[in-house]
Amino acid sequence: MRRLAAIGVFAAAAFLTTAPAQAAVVQSMDIKVKVAKGDKNKKTGGATLRTTFKISDETGAKPPPLTHTTIRFPKGGKMNSKLFKKCKLANLKTKGPTKGCPKQSLIGKGTGHGDARPFIADIRGEVKLFNGESKGSNPTLLIWALPEIGPIIYSLAEFRDDPAGPYGVRMINRTPRNIIPLNPQPPMIYLSLRLGAKITKTKRVRVGRRGSRRTVKRRVTYNYLENPSKCSGSWKWRLDVEYENGEKLQPTDTVRCRK
Length: 259
Description:
Elements: E1 2-4, E2 25-35, E3 44-57, E4 66-74, E5 78-79, H1 89-100, E6 106-116, E7 120-135, E8 138-147, E9 153-160, E10 167-174, E11 188-195, E12 198-207, E13 214-223, E14 225-228, E15 234-243, E16 248-249, E17 252-256
Antiparallel strand pairs: 1-2, 2-3, 3-11, 3-14, 4-10, 4-15, 5-14, 6-7, 6-11, 7-8, 8-9, 9-10, 12-13, 15-16, 15-17
């Protein structure tokens, strides 16, 4: 666990809206990355990302809301979004996550909490993440959130390549505002997410020795998220955060990698 001066997350859209900014914000982030043991000798391995975010205010007041969040993943990682079923945002809104999205498009889930004082001290909600339709050549992530109070909340995050510096793919999200019918709006105070899914497909491969090679069908497992299998000490992460009051911060974090 590492304490940061600011923190943001792509699914915070579900619980961050408009609220007065405070000065004494205390935030923490815990990132855990698990790479499949069978992929440790490969360049990249199937990965599961677990994140936990907490936001509070030392004065006891509500923490400020986020308006934009960009997560920068470690260099060398990739998304296999093209191999997974895609969910259309329109279907998600009209039919819901069960009937509106293919089962194999669900790639993550979690829970969140919002501060709704003076009405309710804690609003809890369920969060689901779906593989969305590409935006140009960029994969997208659909965010569905069901709070205990208020309507269902939808948001979209876009993946973009970012080859500069120690980071690779970046995920950009703009936080919806003025959604929950409370004034002031409840900001997020806790978010726990798990991102990672697998899919098995039939693939034609060439086997046998040279001169007697043949094509056979084999079942191959693919992961939505692939992380570099090895690194020098740790994987680097960065979050570019923008608050409603215009403040912009770039907290960083590292996760020790397997030798």
